[in-house]
UniProtKB/TrEMBL annotation:
GO terms, biological process: cell adhesion
Keyword Disulfide bond annotated: yes
Entries under InterPro entries matching the protein: cEGF (IPR026823), EGF (IPR000742), EGF-like_Ca-bd_dom (IPR001881), EGF-type_Asp/Asn_hydroxyl_site (IPR000152), EGF_Ca-bd_CS (IPR018097), Fibulin_C (IPR055088), Sushi/SCR/CCP_sf (IPR035976), Sushi_SCR_CCP_dom (IPR000436)
Originating species: Coilia grayii
Identification of the protein by name: Fibulin-7-like
Compartment(s): Secreted, Extracellular space, Extracellular matrix
SMART domains: CCP, EGF, EGF_CA
EGF-like domain: residues covered: 133-169, 240-285
Signal sequence annotation: 1-21
Membrane-spanning ranges: none
Keywords: Calcium, Cell adhesion, Disulfide bond, EGF-like domain, Extracellular matrix, Glycoprotein, Repeat, Secreted, Signal, Sushi
Domain Sushi: 76-133
CDD domains in the cross-refs: CCP (cd00033), EGF_CA (cd00054)
Short name of any one Pfam family annotated for the protein: Sushi
């Protein structure tokens, strides 16, 4: 600033001071004030230049990434995917970058890709899945010459003569007795030579029946109806066999999968609410209330079938102070574009996905429960981590299975009924600078039963 400019500025300031009833500032005071203004302007200029450099770096990175991607046609989608037979498809949006997920009904196993993503080339990643019936007979569960017949979500053993039980593991007891009785033969006389029946005694309880005895040449031969046996020394009385107690747990399994009810001369199996008895009369099959429309979920809720019941869930996008989200599929929310100067918004998750799993009680561990994968990478590094409190970390951990995939692992068995929640975060970085965060929230419904 020239001497003339300083004088003019000093005169202007002096005039303003006089107008407000104050003394004129000295030249030294004015120069000190000017130096402070220079420092303030320099600090603002430095901050502004730093912001411009950061913005220029991000724009260059986006430009480089965009140059690698093929041109995206307008108003086009990937071909429509159908749900596999005996399975379900979740996800309806067919635009590039969106995913669909596949699940199989109980008793079937998924062959192919569990998740497929619409690529920018308008083709689907992975392979079209199918749901294949699990052949429970492949392990040869039927013992002692029994024949196995495979069923959906189970099997039936046709036992050889003399064997019983869910896997033909228990020998049948002998229901007759032979007694040598010379006095009885003498009393019968000539008629006894041909054989004579002893009249049955009267019985009143359905669990007690008379035996069927014949006398032949001094020998008494007594038999019982099926499901009864002679007990004690009284050969004229047959008592009911408690199959539930006798065959409850054999070498290879239970007589009834859930509850065994003893009946006169036999038994029957019962299932808990939410299950139907299978054709073999021993096993229980889960009822899919969601597929059979036996639920009470409203239009804003999703019906999730569980073992022995169902759950109504409502997926709502997260509410954050510095970012807003919109639902792009029934199970996925994506962040709206952020203003350039809103750093807090850019640090919020780019997307939040919701997934629901149903498992039986006391599932063996360790076991892979869910996989999170990046179909395409913009940065040079992917990081996977487990979010949540101590309860989530007590039951789960996150491991990397390959460069682009992390998997949620169950590390300890869980006894139902219980509901577990875990959040898997996938972070994408370029030279240690965060490019995006993606959250997957997994809710697991654990059945009260182990089937």
């Amino acid at each position: 600033m020239s001497r003339t400019q300083v004088v003019l500025l000093l005169m202007s300031v002096c005039q303003l001071s006089i107008m407000h009833g104050q003394d004129c500032p000295s030249r030294q005071e004015l120069q000190s004030s000017l130096r402070q203004v220079h420092k303030l302007l320099s600090a603002h200029e430095t901050s502004y230049m730093q912001s411009l450099r950061t913005l220029r770096k991000k724009l260059n990175l986006l430009q480089t990434s965009a140059a690698r991607l093929p041109a995206k046609p307008n108003n086009v989608t990937c071909p429509k995917l159908e749900a596999p037979a005996n399975g379900k498809k979740m996800g309806k949006i067919l635009l590039p970058g969106h995913e669909v997920h596949f699940l199989c009904d109980p008793g079937y196993e998924l062959v192919g890709s569990e998740t497929r993503q619409c690529k920018d080339s308008l083709t689907w990643s992975g392979q079209q899945p199918l749901c294949r019936d699990i052949n429970e007979c492949s392990s040869s569960p039927c013992l002692n010459g029994g024949t196995c017949e495979n069923e959906v979500n189970g099997f039936v053993c046709l036992c050889a003569k003399g064997w019983a039980g869910a896997t033909c593991q228990s020998p049948l007891p002998t229901f007759f007795i032979t007694i040598t009785n010379t006095s009885a033969a003498t009393a019968v006389g000539a008629a006894g030579a041909a054989g004579a029946s002893v009249p049955p005694p009267a019985t009143t309880s359905p669990l007690v029946r008379p035996s069927h005895c014949t006398h032949t040449q001094g020998t008494t031969h007594c038999t019982c109806d099926p499901g009864y046996t002679i007990s004690g020394r009284d050969t004229s009385v047959c008592t009911d066999i408690d199959e539930c107690e006798l065959f409850h747990m054999g070498q290879a399994g239970r007589l009834c999968l859930h509850t065994c009810v003893n009946t006169a001369g036999g038994y029957r199996c019962a299932c808990p609410v939410g299950y139907n008895l299978t054709r073999d009369g021993r096993n229980c099959k889960d009822i899919d209330e969601c597929a059979n429309r036996q639920h009470n979920c409203n239009q804003d809720q999703l019906c999730i079938n569980t073992y022995g019941g169902f759950q109504c869930v409502k997926v709502e996008c997260p509410r954050m102070r510095n970012a807003t989200y919109v639902k792009t599929t029934p199970l996925r929310c994506e962040r709206n574009p952020c203003p350039l100067d809103n750093r807090a918004c850019s640090q919020a998750p780019n997307s939040v996905s919701y997934h629901y799993l149903a498992v039986v009680s006391d599932l063996s561990a360790p076991r892979v429960m869910f996989r999170v994968s990046a179909m395409r990478m913009i940065g040079d590094t992917l990081r996977f981590s487990l979010l949540g409190g101590p309860r989530a970390r007590r039951h789960f951990t996150v491991q990397r299975s390959d460069r682009q995939t992390g998997q949620l692992m169950l590390v300890s068995p869980v006894s139902g009924p219980a509901t577990l929640e875990a959040e898997v975060e996938m972070s994408e970085l370029e030279r240690r600078m965060l490019l995006g965060r993606y959250i997957t929230k997994v809710t697991i419904f654990v059945s009260p039963y182990d089937f």
